[in-house]
Amino acid sequence: MVDDILKKYPNDVKLVIKNFPLSFHKQAMQAAKYVLAAKNQGKYDELYHRVMENYRQLKTNEDLPLQLAGELGLDVEQLKLDANSPAIANQIQTEVNELKNSGVPRMSVPKFLINGKEPQGRSLAAFSEVIEAELKKKK
Amino acid sequence: MMKRSIKYFTLLTSSLLLISCFEADTASLEKAISKVQDNQKIILQKIESLEKGQQGLRKNLAANTKTDPKKDNKPKADPNKVYNVAVGNSVIKGNPNAKVTITEWMDFQ
To answer: What are A77-133's pLDDT values in tens digits?
Structure first.
């Protein structure tokens, strides 16, 4: 859905992706680390989508992101090293804290803010409404 | 002659008995009918009060569906509140200079 928004407003809207791996999803944190590490090899988007498509298998296979990374032609050993670096751990922790400290009620994921405002729903229409209002303001 | 009078007497008493029996039966029948009628009145009254109760329930139900607690009492996002969150080192997709920023927190499960 958000991809549709980016297509609809290619110049006016950007997406900032922040991690919020839920603590009761054991494999979520590791998956977040692998995907973030893929950025170093210029394959963040690709790995992100592959992991999202196969997220159901994550529960039983923590190494799934590594397999998918291999299929995408990434250097898996390098990916492992980068994923387990303190820089990536810090970034995820920062992103988690940003939501926790934002004052946003009901910290559920996925959570969206559009120029800091919570949309009244998770549809193309609901998002467009906020985006249009924001664009009018800036003109 | 004697035999004949005995015959009449028996006939008379037995018919008298029969009549009295019949009368006793009508009396008990009438009693039973009035009892049934009384019961019917009670039943009708109960049905009426049940119908009233049902109407009340329907009204309550209609009122409840109008303000479904699950849907309407759910705290809605405040459209005017602004939560400022920095971009930081987070991944950006799309035009970095875009006027509108969507910030998404996600989880892979």
So the answer is: 999 999 999 999 999 999 999 999 999 987 888 999 999 999 988 999 999 999 999
Question: Is B104 inside a domain boundary?
Answer: no
What global pTM score does this model have?
0.68
Number of Cβ atoms within 10 Å of the Cβ of B34: 10
Cβ–Cβ below 8 Å for A17 and B93: yes
B83: Cα within 13 Å, side-chain hemisphere? 23
Q: What is the ipTM of this complex?
A: 0.93
Instruction: Say if B77 falls within a structural domain.
Output: no
Task: Name the minimum distance, in Å, from the CA of A100 to any CA of chain B.
Answer: 11
φ, ψ of residue B92 to 5 degrees: the values are -115, 135
B99 vs A: CB within 8 A: yes
Q: How many domains does chain B contain in total? A: 1
**Of the candidates A93, A35, A101, the residue with the CA atom closest to the CA atom of residue A64:** A35
Domain presence at residue B87: no
